[in-house]
Amino acid sequence: MRLIQNMCTIAEYPAPGSAAAAADCCLGAAGRRLVKIAVVGASGVGKTALVVRFLTKRFIGDYERNAGNLYTRQVQIEGETLAIQVQDTPGVQVHENGLSCGEQLNRCIRWADAVVIVFSVTDYKSYELIGQLHQHVQQLHLGSRLPVVVVANKADLLHVKQVDPQLGLQLAGVLGCSFYEVSVSENYNDVYNAFHVLCKEVSHKQQPSSTPEKRRTSLIPRPKSPNMQDLKRRFKQALSAKVRTVTSV
Ligand SMILES: Nc1nc2c(ncn2[C@@H]2O[C@H](COP(=O)(O)OP(=O)(O)OP(=O)(O)O)[C@@H](O)[C@H]2O)c(=O)[nH]1
Ligand SMILES: [Mg+2]
User: What is its EC number (predicted)?
Assistant: First the structure.
């Protein structure tokens, strides 16, 4: 694993829809395909811990709150090296009328090719947010279904568990997302798998018809290039026929 860059904020990146963003959309450093992932969820569920674990394999235990940093690393997906940008985000606030997503968070979601929605199994309220958050994410990407993975974190804290992982699995099924129960503090592999599956989904979405298209074009018969020998022969035949006609007259 190679940590390429960190500590940039999303504000430094081109606004979605701009010409710069269009140029930036699929290619990262060194012309690699780029996958942009935003990590969202309620406050304190372990978003920063999850991102740092994925990037460094380490669990530190104490993280700056609402950091909102952007990180980049490379990952191998089906033999191809992709550049991944991971955007940590501030915790979503909940008000009486529902979710309150600030402009910074909305910008991150619009920028992303895929989203990780995190809740903590020790916080039922963070689980209750998942449906609304998923809806909000899809609303900001109207017209294209954004790949989303739901992650239930803090699986190690059995004694203070408030959410049965089955509930998370069922909800993710209803929303059409993948689901991972992880303990960021105790297990790196599950964290890696959650990101890996998401990257794979985005990668396939970025090249939806590459294989069938290739196959289709290879099936279309190419027009034969003119055979010079054959042309010469037919030209000679035509000439001698004319000569014969002339002499017979
Ligand atoms: N036991 C345990 N603690 C965890 C786990 N993941 C995160 N934590 C702890 O949960 C607390 C919150 O983690 P953060 O990563 O800061 O949570 P966050 O979602 O980024 O929080 P905000 O930035 O405030 O929205 C920290 O004390 C972490 O050490 C885990 O899997 N198990
Ligand atoms: Mg954080």
Answer: 3.6.5.2
Nearest to 121 by CA among 42, 190, 39: 42
Strand partners, 35: 84
User: 34-206 — its CATH code?
Assistant: 3.40.50.300
**pLDDT beyond 70 at 204:** yes
Domain boundaries, the chain: 34-206
- Site to probe by mutation for ligand 1, drawn from 39, 40, 47, 123 as the one with most ligand atoms within 8 Å of Cβ, is 47
pLDDT on residue 197: 95
Tell whether pTM > 0.90.
Answer: no
What residue's CA is closest to ligand 1, atom 28? 61
Sequence-separated (6 or more) residues with CB below 8 Å from residue 154: 45, 46, 120, 121, 122, 183, 184, 185
In ligand 1, which atom is closest to the CA atom of 88?
20
